[in-house]
Structure formats: C-alpha cells, structure tokens
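Hello forum,

I keep getting stuck at the same step: I have a sequence, I want structure tokens, and every attempt I make locally crashes halfway through. Rather than fight my setup again tonight, could one of you with a working pipeline run this one for me? It's a single chain of 503 residues.
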Amino acid sequence: MTHQHTTATDAAPANPAPWRPSRTVAVILAGGTGTRLGLGIPKQLLKIAGKPIIEHTLAVFESAPEIDEIIVLMAAGHVTEARRIVEKAGFRKVTTVIEGGDTRNATTRIALDAIGDEDCNVLFHDAVRPLVSHRIVRECVNALWTYSAVDVAIPSADTIIQVDGDDCITDIPVRSSLRRGQTPQAFRSGTIREAYRRAEGDPNFAATDDCGVVLRYLPGTPIKVIDGSDENIKVTHPVDVHLADKLFQLAAARVPRLADERSYREELTGRTMVVFGGSYGIGHDLTELARRHGAQVFPFSRSTTGTHVERPADVEAALRTAFEATGRIDHVVVTAGILEKGNLAEMDEETIDRVLQVNFVGPVTAARLALPYLQQTKGQLLLYTSSSYTRGRARYALYSATKAALVNLTQALADEWAEFGVRVNCVNPERTATPMRTRAFGAEPEHTLLSAEAVAQASLDVLISELTGQVIDVRRDPGEAPQVVPAQTARPSSGAAAEMSAG
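Reply #2:
Ran it on my machine without issues. Output:
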C-alpha cells in the first residue's frame, strides 16, 4: 500500500527530475545492547546456526547484486569485534564499521554523514533481522526508482487493540488496514536527509523508525510499502533466539541441489572424503555417490576394515591412510551407529557401554582427531542424528539420548571451530530404509520410509555448501517412489547393532 499525505505546501514537486543514484548503500544498524535477552554481549554478536547474527545479516547484503556498499553502525565498545567478523568473513562490500549513536535517530545521522553528499539509495536494516531475503532487498531497491521512501511490512494476523492508561480498550482498528513494520527501510538519500534536517527544528523530535520521520516531516512524500515475510523476525527476546535458530534449520533443509552431473564433478573432483560407517546404508550410498561425482572416498567400518570409530588408534590410522594417499582430507563423515532396543533397567553394562561408545564417544573421537586435517582444507565434519533426538522414546532411550548429544556437539563444535574455518553440520533424516532399521523394527510399509540414497544425496549437498552449525532435516518427498531396503547384509552382531544411522 502507499501512504499519501499532501497537506504540506512544501511537498515534493509533482514531476521531479529522474532519479540517478550513484550507488546503493546498505546501512546495518547494530547498536543494540541485548539487555532484553539478558546477555553480557550485544545480541547481534550472539551466535545462531554457527555464526554471529550480524554475520548472517551481512552475508545477505554482501551477496545481493543490488547492493554496492555496506556500512555498519555498531554498539559502543564493540566496533573491534564487528570489524573482526567482517575481516574473517571476507565481506568486501563493507567499507565502514563505526560506532553508532545513543538513539536510532542519532545513529541514522551518523550513517548519513558517513555516506556523503552524493545522491544514492540508502537501505537501513536491523542487524538482528538475519533472515531478511534477497527478494525483499531487491524489491526495496527497485521501488526507489518510483518512490523516494519505501517500507517493508506484513499483515497483522492478530487483532490490534488500543488502550488507555488503565489498560482499558479505547479502540479496535480495522485489521485489514494494519501492517507490522519490518526492515529494511529504503530511501533516496536526499529525502531522508531533508526529513532529518526538518526534524532538527522540532524540540519534541523522537522516533524509532526512519519512515516515521519522513511521514511526519515530509508529509507530501508517498511511502511505498512492500511485502515483508514472516521469517524476517527481529531477535529481541529469548524466545526469538530459538525461533531464529529453527528458521535457519528449516532453510538449511532446503539446501539446493546443483544443476547437473557436471556441476557436482566440478565441486568434488580432487576432494578427499573419509566415511566412518561406510559399508552399509547411508554411509555406503554416500560413498558411492561421492565417488561417482569425482571425489576420492575412503570408507571405514568394523565389518570391512576392522575400524572401530570409538578407538582413537583406529580412527587416526584411517585418517592417516586417506591423507597419505591424497595429501588432503576435505570431509569427514560419521554415519556409524548402533541401535539396541530394550528397557534401560534391563540392559547389561556391556550393552550400555557399547551404545555409548559407538554412538557418542565415536563421533567425539573422530571429531577430535579430524580437526588438524580439516583445518588445512577448511573442510567439514558431518554427523548424523535421529528424529528421536527431540523426544526420548521408550525402549531405545540410550539411542535417543546419544543422538540428542550429537546435536549439541554439532552446535558447540561449529562455534569452537569457526576460527579455523572448519564447518560442522548434522543431518537428521526421518525414518530411513536401512538394514539396521529392518533388524530393529522388522518389515514396514515401503512408502513410509525415506531411502538411504535420498539421505546420501542430501548429505552430499550439505558437504559442498557453506552451512555450519546446522541440523538439517531430510524428509521424504510425498511423490517419491516406494523404496526398498538395499540388498546388503550386515555381519551378524548382538542385538540390532549396525554401522549406519537409523534415521
């Protein structure tokens, strides 16, 4: 919608000169202190999905072709940290990182001074809205060819009420005309400068919104509103941290596949992958898929190579074998796992120890020993959890508990290893057709299971992505043809033990 206010005699001329901006500048407003989150650091420095919130936000504008330059207005006392993030991430469009003002208004003025006097497009965006989309950025910039002020908003799903000082309702506005404001807010530089120039003469001037300044002090200026998105949330309260993290997880689940075989070969040729648990199920299918695309893959398992992932000596020997053969290790994948069903109180100590050792100590051991190799290539560690990690289930409590531990391990290592440029992710497949699952649960309707090959494909897409700290859900496509359990037989072992993720 467009707001039209034409009461002022000094409104913008009916036929202004064509707009010819010199460039488009994104101003990232990062002046918040995180007091409502109860943090000791500004909320924009809090890590979500393996990276500081501000890094996610900057990455959107860095990769947006419409943006020529980025200026960061950082909270007092934290400019050095922001510059470190920019330098480490290699954001080339960021030209300035400076301290913001005490208020939103003061920060906007500092930004305008930093931009200079040339006519340009200016987008002001909250650093703590890391899920802004390229579509929103593009539409804001495009709208500035027609309008000199642009806002972003979404319809209100809730009824809005107006109350008095006693918290009694005084009015209920019509919901269809209401919107919930977001950012970015975009302006022709001359428009926002003039609005602030006029505001300087108002002793009662105070605003938390730059479009509000234009609306009040340039009432003849139309402000175009484009559609925002429900995902473009502002991380303000503790619950927002969890919501944002889940939204990143959902976005990660849609990691795009490359266009064709040639694209995969270009990505994977020359890379070395080590797969622990590579004999059956997901590990086997990932090994075959990566090899087909040109990677050199070294699968290890108890049944084929005598490799026990929980034994440091075995893991180090496996990594050394791959490194000596190729001179590098780009990906380390741990699909090894065992599922033992039964009530915990009835399990013997040997079974309990075996489950804990293989399902948790194994990935920890592989991670610790793989780091020196992955540091050299800026590579990735990939782990596997299960849908049971969100809720422990009777009769396989230890399995669920260890899978939940791997999620926490993934997020923690992504944080620890960010300084080395090493990424860590975790794939969470739904119920998957593997020999281990068949042994544990018997025959199940084929159309209800995800194929191991589909999980392998999703895993490969994650490995060649830039994701880190993510738990990637892999779900069965309703249109997917029924899958059969691969015709592979595992070496008999006690209980339902096997060397793959159960999904």
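Confidence is low (pLDDT under 50) at residues 1-13, 480-503. If your local run keeps crashing, start a new thread with the error log.
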